[in-house]
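Changelog note: in this version the structure field was regenerated for every chain. One regenerated record is shown below for reference.
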Amino acid sequence: MNIRNFSIIAHIDHGKSTLADRLLELTSAISTLHHGQVLDAMDLERERGITIKAKAVRLTYASSDGEKYQLNLIDTPGHVDFTYEVSRALAACEGCLLLVDASQGVEAQTLSNFELARQHNLKIIPVINKIDLKQADVPKTVQQIEKLKIPETPILISAKQNIGTKEIVNAIIKKIPAPVGDIKKPLKALVFDSHYDSFRGVIIYIRIFDGEISTGNKVLFLSNLEKFDVEEVGFFQIQNPSAPAGRSKTDKLSVGEVGYVILGIRDIHKIKIGDTITGAENPTATPHPGYRELKPFVFCGLYPVQPGDYANLSKAMGKLHLEDSSFFYQPETSVALGFGYRCGFLGLLHMDIVKERLQREFDLNLIITAPNVKYRIKYVKGRAPLRVLYNETGGDSSIIEIDNPSKFPERQFIEKIYEPYILATIVLPSQFVGNVMALCEGKRGDFLDMTYITEDKVKLIYEMPLADAIVDFYDNLKSVSSGYASLDYEFSDYKESELVKMDILVNNEPVDALSFVIHKSNAEFYGRKIVEKLRGLIPRQQFEVPIQASVSGKIIARENVRALRKDVIAKCYGGDISRKRKLLEKQKEGKKKMKQFGNVSIPQEAFLAVLQLDTK
């Protein structure tokens, strides 16, 4: 079978998209005259220089032995927040190219993606890129790859200069095994991605493991046993270098092939990524293992600026979830912001990308609340609500999970609070170890391990609270290491912590969307910072507006937004002082009444104030 299914995996900015362009050129999928990064079709991907969405494309290559090969390439993202995209792509492949920058060497996400590929039992071909750079250190990079115990010798290339591209394709053909499957068995197809087309409905990306699928077949999903007629099958192919890979219709897809199927589905909730499609009349006995359910790390609220856009936001959420099933959403309401959604993401960049895509692709104007994590609350005996997560063995108290600070119970009902911790793997040059260790300890991190990858490259492992890592840790890490440190992390466990809920009161009224949870030792510092920030963001009113930070009913910080004041005594050119006093007293009474009944409009910028605090 002359089919090869492979993926390109690497740390961010190691040259995946450029290598993909060279492979497209070599297989004549595109000409050499193109704008670059053909598979990165999203505006956001081009603006930020990163791959956000995994892409599947079929290439045809005629080798020197006269055989024609079908190469199914699935390009993957490199940032830690999009690891789920990488995992889904690898499940549809038999092998991968592990790309390493010769000037940077093995970095945190290189190690993480290598482990993912090994878990999927893939054939791994190491490739060292950017060998043409002056600062490239090929021997040292080879030494780092050897420590990963990959049996294959690294291929030396420069994707930018088109050096070594043929050697890569030859290695793909010779070293990556052909797909294994039986065309005579019942259809077994893995759903590894999807997107919504306004004309055709849901376009489902599939990899065939057994059997074949043709137009007119009747198929069913094993997760819900719903049956559908196949309207169209095909594969993805570059048809226009200035546009994303387009659909090429075909009669059928057989075992080992990667492509798409259209079933006329308009209800987006019927699609589950990782599901198995099989024949309705002769179904397979065992579904494909699929994907493990991911739990989001970072939560925030998304609300439309205009309340009338809530219905459009609901539709947009569903359609975007088809393409990115790693984010979670459910409806919620806020006193300050109205109807919206509580969303969960894999990281801060993931949150930012989803918000940007909703605004650009669906023409929405959104307010996003400060990010937070999911906490576990152990209630005092007899005070737990009905919605219980689980009971501790032998204990009388119950534990529930809370992902919204506004739902935090009163302190007297709480026995213990647990917060999520992560295992952070940081790869960096040895001269920055002191700076990075100080940063991690400042984020309440616990040192676990330090390993020298080479003489001047170190791997640090810390366990730290996720809440302290999601806001500014990555930016500070890059700052203290002059941009050389790289980060990868995974969930570790829940640990007991001294946490408090901080409420922000504007004009003596709590604003639920500004509430957040913080460690007790940092409460006063952050309380002062946020009220100072809000004082500059909330517009002045006709009356004085107090802004207060409160913990367990106790005010720990306060700032006032001064009132706009009309000069009521300007018309007095003299006369007795009692006349002026009378006018000033009248003004004072009016402002007092205004303050009692007045409403304060809070601008969008105020809800991001927690994100933009100067914590130095």
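Spot check on this record: The chain has five domains: 3-175, 188-279, 298-368, 411-497, 500-608. Confidence is low (pLDDT under 50) at residues 388-396.
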